[in-house]
Structure prediction request, 420 residues.
Amino acid sequence: MSDMLRDIIALNKAGECIAIPSVCSAHPEVLSASLQLASSLKRPLVIEATSNQVNQFGGYTGMDASAFVAFIDDLKSKYGIAPNMVELGGDHLGPQVWKSETADRAMAKAHDLVSDYVRAGIKKIHLDCSEGCAGEPPMLDDVTAAERAALLAVSCLNAAPVPKDLIFVIGTEVPAPGGARLGEDGHIIPTCPEAAVKTLMAHRAAFTEKGIEDSWPQVSGLVVQPGVEFGPDHVFTMANGTDTGLRDAISEYTQICLEAHSTDFQPPETFAKLANMGFAFQKVGPALTFALRRALYALDHIVQELNPTTVTLPQVMEAAMRRNPEHWRSHYSEDDMSKWHCSYADRIRYYWPLPAVKEAVQTLISTFDELKVPEHILAKSFSSDVLERSEGLTASRGHAIVRSEVQGALLPYFLGDRGD
Prediction:
């Protein structure tokens, strides 16, 4: 399957407007929606787990890498997804989850993390050691980050049944403390070409130093900031006429494309622009769980109007967030409830796996399905596109509507397809 990714990179490098969407989520409904959409369009898809979602200690999903792969395999089997349609990846794999510990301790856990991912059969590996650990600067210099990434690459190669099947992605778009930098025009400042080349050179030197220079051609992606970003209550779109010069800057690295993170909530035309700028890998995550939340809250509103209950889904979510504030406390204030529920940063996504929340969602869907809500009522909360697309999905009415809402957010990433 990684050959398919290399083919996409080659076509993009040759100037074709082509890219592959990469869904960074572990939510069953989001993944079901994404797989069903990719299958209906007959287009390939990457699904990636982040190190805080899935790791050897369970992450916030409760899954290690093997469990995550089995979970995806079950979904592919359930929906009849062709095996060659989906590649699995690991996103921001490194010591970040344990950065409050010393570098030695955090890196030891990172080595176990990447080895587990590779042994589980995950082939697209983003090595990201850019953030400092206890006693270190928040963001590390290129040489230190590259050295640590190369050490993790060694662990990956040693753990892989077929090392040449792996593809590596390096670099990061994670902004330094204080947020991404804005230019005088109010737009995000893209990574400069010189910085991108410096990152590549540092990693290439580190691969050589660690004795894995023969594996350098397996480095297939470079994460940089293309000039798009989102915060809790604002989306930063690309400046008109943006030409980062990044495609030309890495042109001599014939096997390496650009990878864009934080592309969520962008206007649909942005994704073709990114592809033309050399971004063959385009990540999306929070926009999909944001769409999920929006759909579930809309279903809850309909149910409450037709069959009022004592507890609403927003109340269940708020109670869960109050009981477990670690995922939002450093992002939102105690009294800014609108951000708790509706922020673009979507910190609420961490709470969907909790048993009480899962039970509330299932009860909501079951109640909605039993009510057999008329179309004219649904039309008040959902677009005609969402309702029409939901008719073709294999699921109960409630699940189908939720998945269709998610698919609406993902569809623009499949360049040239409108889903009709």
